[in-house]
Amino acid sequence: MPRFAGPSTMMRLPPQPTAEGLDVCFVGIPLDVGTSNRSGTRFGPRQIRQESAMLRPYNMATGAAPFDSLQIADIGDVPLNTFNLMKSVEIITEFYDDVLRHPCVPLTLGGDHTITYPILRSIANKHGPVALIHVDAHADINDEMFGEKIAHGTPFRRAFDDGLLQNDKVFQIGLRGTGYSPDDFNWARSKGWTVIQAEECWYKSLSPLMDGLRERIGGAPVYITYDIDSLDPAFAPGTGTVEIGGLTTWQALEIVRGCAGMNIVGGDLVEVSPPFDPSGNTALIGANLLYEMLCVLPGVKR
Questions:
Q1: 183, 191 contact by CB (below 8 A)
Q2: Cα 274 to chain center, whole Å?
Q3: Contact 224, 264 (CB under 8 A)
Q4: Record: fold of 37-74+117-295
Q5: Residue 77, SS3?
Q6: pLDDT tens digit string along 189-226?
Q7: How many CB atoms lie within 10 A of CB 274?
Q8: Under 8 Å between Cβ of 65 and 301
Q9: Beta-ladder partners of 73
Q10: Domain segments of the chain as ranges
Q11: How far is the CA of 246 from the CAs of 21, 60, 199, 204, 235, in angstroms?
């Protein structure tokens, strides 16, 4: 079957209705009602799946062979309530509670960044508070947005409030842009989180950074959340809140590949907005980064 044909699943994997019998599942969350600027991320999971069709099973750079090691399928999309964000948040947590009844690691195709909060609630129900590797242009630590406690700019404030994170093992990478006050990134620092602004990453390999993170995280359960707007818009223009001066695609690969050896219990790739991605390249990068997350999961043979 030509790769442009066949089922429209992540990497043309077999579809399955539940996580039963799986080691890893791909899940879509087509949500964009938590966005504050350009919408369109509800179409992200579909576009990422479409652009993933050309991904092959073997990672020629790292030697990872995930499909030789693990049972993997695409279990479709979370059935959201399009008109009610708070209801959708509850639906997401319930869906992931069901996924995590099985010994399965979920990798999620977003959707706006609101989705990470309800996923983390479910992850913490199973694993307890987690270490967090958060790659993003924005800190997403607002207490409110237009009076609302839950939106795509608040997930990590809510995760902190709920005790879902190991605060000495939270790392935010790639933050940049303009702010509302000089202290916009310092709230996170005051909680023990490590903030690595984008300017600290310019002109550098990030492999040494990831070596240090791996040592500091140790054997703690780790969740990876990757906002595509962490990348410079030269690479990934198809997103809702663009900031110049971002990471490169090779730095993105160094970050995700640098998670190898960690106790990863889940991950997501968020904020791909196809209406602003006419070439499909932003979704293509998102698909590749999700594949790289798959390649660093525990149990993958090399």
A1: no
A2: 17
A3: yes
A4: Arginase; Chain A (3.40.800)
A5: strand
A6: 999 999 999 999 999 999 999 999 999 999 999 999 99
A7: 21
A8: yes
A9: 25
A10: 37-74+117-295
A11: 39, 26, 8, 12, 9
- Who's near 2: CB < 8 A, 6+ residues apart? none
pLDDT at 205: 98
Per-residue confidence (pLDDT) for residue 20, from 0 to 100: 98
Whether 184 contacts 137, CB under 8 Å: no
**Per-chain mean pLDDT for the chain:** 97
The CB-side HSE value for 54 (13 A sphere, CA atoms) comes to: 9
| C-alpha to C-alpha distances, 88 to 29, 210, 218, 251, nearest whole angstrom | 10, 34, 34, 33
Q: With 90 as the cut, is the pLDDT of residue 112 above it?
A: yes
pLDDT tens-place string over residues 6-24: 889 999 999 999 999 999 9
Closest residue by Cα to residue 134 from 80, 75, 185: 185
The single-letter code of the amino acid at 12 is R
Q: What tokens does 279 get? A: 């070439």
Using alpha carbons, select from 12, 25, 105, 45 the residue that is nearest to residue 228.
45
